[in-house]
UniProtKB/TrEMBL annotation:
Its EC number is 2.7.1.11. GO terms for cellular component: 6-phosphofructokinase complex; membrane. This is 6-phosphofructokinase. One of its GO terms (molecular function) is monosaccharide binding.
Length: 793
């Protein structure tokens, strides 16, 4: 929320508006006085890394009454405030819309009561409203993500990971289990045998995004969500599922429950009920953990900071462009775009979800939640609720390729390029999705070198257990391309009877895929379906807006910048020059600049010269005259051959003498390590599963050249699986060549470059133009009133 407040204040001031804080929510609006204060540029400094909201929030019963709204209207009129930006859930936004709808009536009543003059009423003849959804539940229809959801997922996954590690103990059953309830923490020490089961209750409102994504991100054995209750006799199915997992070697079972979980008859399913069922029927030592308010606290994630900043900018633009006839809108996220949608239509669809659940129309409830929720649910069902074949097919099949129980298809998986967090999640998902389809899954170790050297072996369901939360690459990975070993690779593809190939990695994976496709003319063995899954911290693979691993790296950089800035809190007058990874791609530097509040971010895609550096130095000298006596400069590793990080450090140190001193930090390989974030786990899981389903369809379309061999040589038989806006799509490798800058290893078009003006505006640079002319609509908003147009500042 603080990122949204900061952006709203600064963009408002930037455009010449006078901006006010309303402390304590609607209660502050009703009470007035010191609760409504002017905001300054400096008053929102050092807010990005703070959780909660620095201006306070409170539930207000007074605002629900007409007399309360009269007082609020009077306070706004006296201050000349005619634009209101509301950050909250659907209840807060509905209240704002009601306030706007009856504004003229409220003004008339205030004139009659003599509390305002006719002239004051004329100056405040209409009230513009814009909403931003701040809710950890992500239950507002009309936006892909709400402010706070990603941070809540970070808190949840941290707890789940901590609990999961309690299963990795010696045979001696000595363990600690944590139990957390709302507002009260009770630390329970217990002896837990290796046959342990943990039931985790995600304590949120009766909507299930957090529980569902957590289940995907941690590989939970079962998830209870109210939108899709379990089938009748779920108790027996659950027990069978847990037993099956133990028989496959699992040391721990994890069950995730959303608050509001229910059965098909709408009877509540409680955490204690599930705990007692597992304990008594299976004899498993079971512990329950109710997370409660821990989910609302902590430092906001990089994604939430950027989301709040983008929504704050869009909210101000919406208010500036509003007319008395403009309906109240809510700023939403559609893929990678910040858009505006009619507020009350989004609220209505949100309420329709609750109605559908109350009426037992559970499929409708899932559909109303949108495609993202549907995809998450379908992926989870496929990976968790379907039993894999008990007997794996042989590596060298001579039988018919497809049969009802097993396909006799061999799909190989290889990691290529630098390791990154989330790779293992993609491998796990692909392996299990393939086994469910009846395929034989093969693991290739150490990249294309391993494929050439025959480092290939079957990989089983149990082997990938627990991989979702592990960083790096368990299969091993190298940067070497297949070109010099192409003949040996083709021989091994034939030797191990590989029918299709999944390549997970960065730009090297993309280049390697292209080399394999080019070599098809000479080597028929390479005429197999193959898919490239982008996985790199650099986020530079053509064909995808995002790459697995980039979010984890971005959070690592953001948290490091927070600590570096904090180190200057006592010193004052200090500027930090920080170098990030990314090669020639400036994604990490730009997004980290937004999430950490940087004064500048130098990247290759936006050339800079000595004049620009001079302006930046002058900007920092002026900044040191304010109460904010610190600076943060980011530089992408290959931003400029001559203006190196050391050069920038020397320049700023020399020009800042007597005003500020400098420190230089090169973050290095710490950006590639660490535990994957919830986004990277979820993203990798969905990408891995989708790639296998696509390959299965492609194999069915391919020609059979001999028993056990297939032939696929069309351009669309070798694709990059990427996220474009809101969809996962497959694009032929060859078709992406035109959009690739091979010299600098980046796509020619990069969506995030449109966010760079926001970074400059929030750092207070003059004469910056920002364009939001993109248009989008959400498919599950029933009554579309046309596409929402953007504009410019």
């Amino acid at each position: 929320m603080n990122a949204a407040v900061r952006a709203t204040v600064r963009v408002g001031i930037y455009t010449g508006a006078k901006v006010y804080f309303v402390h304590e929510g609607y209660q502050g609006l009703v009470d007035g006085g010191d609760n409504i204060k002017p905001a300054t540029w400096e008053s929102v400094s050092m807010m990005l890394q703070l959780g909660g909201t620095v201006i306070g929030s409170a539930r207000c019963m007074d605002f629900k009454e007409k007399w309360g709204r009269l007082k609020a209207a009077c306070n706004l009129v006296k201050l000349g405030i005619t634009n209101l930006c509301v950050i909250g859930g659907d209840g807060s936004l509905t209240g704002a819309n009601q306030f706007r709808t009856e504004w003229s009536e409220l003004l008339a009543d205030l004139i009659k009561q003599g509390k305002i003059t006719a002239e004051e009423a004329k100056r405040s003849s209409h009230l513009n409203i814009v909403g931003m959804v701040g809710s950890i539940d992500n239950d507002f229809c009309g936006t892909d993500m709400t402010i706070g959801t990603d941070s809540a997922l970070h808190r949840i996954i941290e707890v789940v990971d901590a609990i999961t590690t309690t299963s990795f103990v010696s045979i001696m059953p000595d363990c600690v289990c944590m139990r957390v309830r709302v507002c009260v923490c009770v630390h329970l020490c217990a002896h837990v045998s290796v046959r342990a089961c943990v039931c985790i209750n995600i304590a949120v409102c009766p909507h299930s995004y957090l529980a569902l994504v957590t289940a995907l991100a941690c590989g939970a054995d079962w998830v209870f969500i109210p939108e899709m209750p379990p089938e009748d006799n779920w108790e027996e199915h659950l027990c069978k599922r847990l037993i099956a997992q133990r028989e496959r070697g699992s040391r721990l079972n994890v069950i995730i429950m959303a608050e509001g979980a229910q059965d098909r008859k709408q009877k509540p399913i409680t955490c204690d009920q599930v705990k007692n069922l597992v304990s008594k029927k299976l004899g498993f030592d079971t512990r329950s953990t109710i997370l409660g308010h821990v989910q609302r606290g902590g430092t906001p994630s990089a994604f939430d900071r950027i989301l709040g900043s983008r929504m704050g900018v869009e909210a101000v633009m919406a208010l500036l462009e509003a007319t008395p006839e403009t309906p109240a809108c809510v700023v939403s996220l559609s893929g990678n775009m910040a858009i505006r949608l009619p507020l009350m239509e989004c609220v209505q669809v949100t309420k329709d979800v609750t109605v559908a659940m109350a009426e037992g129309r559970f499929e409708d409830a899932v559909n109303l939640r949108g495609k993202s929720f549907q995809n998450n649910w379908n992926t989870y069902k496929m990976l968790a609720h379907v039993n894999p074949p008990e007997v794996a097919p042989k590596i060298h099949p001579l039988s018919v390729l497809f049969s009802p129980s097993q396909s006799n298809i061999n799909i190989a998986i290889v990691n290529v390029g630098a390791p990154c967090a989330g790779m293992n999640a993609a491998v796990r998902s692909a392996v299990r999705a393939g086994l469910i389809q009846g395929h034989q899954m093969l693991a290739i170790h150490d990249g294309f070198d391993g494929l050439a050297n025959g480092q290939i072996e079957p990989i089983t369901w149990a082997q990938v257990g627990g991989w979702t939360g592990k960083g790096g690459s368990n299969l091993g990975t190298k940067r070497n391309l297949p070109g010099k070993n192409i003949e040996q690779i083709s021989l091994n593809i034939a030797k191990f009877n590989i029918h299709s190939l999944i390549i997970i990695g960065g730009f090297e994976a993309y280049l390697g895929g292209l080399e394999l496709v080019t070599a098809r003319e000479k080597y028929e063995e390479l005429c197999i379906p193959m898919v490239v899954i982008p996985a790199t911290v650099s986020n530079n693979v053509p064909g995808s807006d995002f790459s697995i691993g980039a979010d984890t790296a971005l959070n690592t950089i953001t948290m490091t910048c927070d600590r570096i800035k904090q180190s200057a809190a006592g010193t004052k007058r200090r500027v930090f020059i920080i170098e990030t990874m990314g090669g020639y791609c400036g994604y990490l530097a730009t997004m980290a600049g937004l999430s950490s509040g940087a004064d500048a971010a130098y990247i290759y895609e936006e050339p800079f010269h000595i004049h620009d550096l001079e302006l930046n130095v002058v900007h920092l000298i002026e900044k040191m005259k304010t109460s904010v006596k610190r600076g943060l400069i980011l530089r992408n590793s290959n931003a400029n051959d001559n203006y190196t990080t050391q050069f920038l450090y020397n320049l700023y140190s020399e020009e800042g003498k007597g005003t500020f001193d400098c420190r230089m930090n090169i973050l290095g390989h710490m950006q590639q390590g660490g535990t994957p974030t919830p986004f990277d786990r979820n993203f990798g899981t969905k990408m891995g599963a989708k790639s296998v389903l696509w390959l299965t369809d492609k194999l069915k379309e391919s020609l059979f050249v001999s028993p056990g061999r297939i032939f696929a040589n069309t351009p669309d038989s070798a694709c990059v699986l990427g996220m474009k806006r809101r969809s996962l799509i497959f694009q032929p490798l060859t078709s992406l060549k035109e959009d690739t800058d091979f010299e600098h290893r980046i796509p020619k078009t990069e969506w995030w470059l449109k966010l760079r003006p926001i970074l400059k505006i929030l750092a207070r640079y003059e004469a910056v133009e920002i364009d939001t002319s993109e248009v989008a609509a959400m498919e599950h908003i029933i009554k579309k009133t046309g596409e929402i147009k953007g504009g410019k500042i």
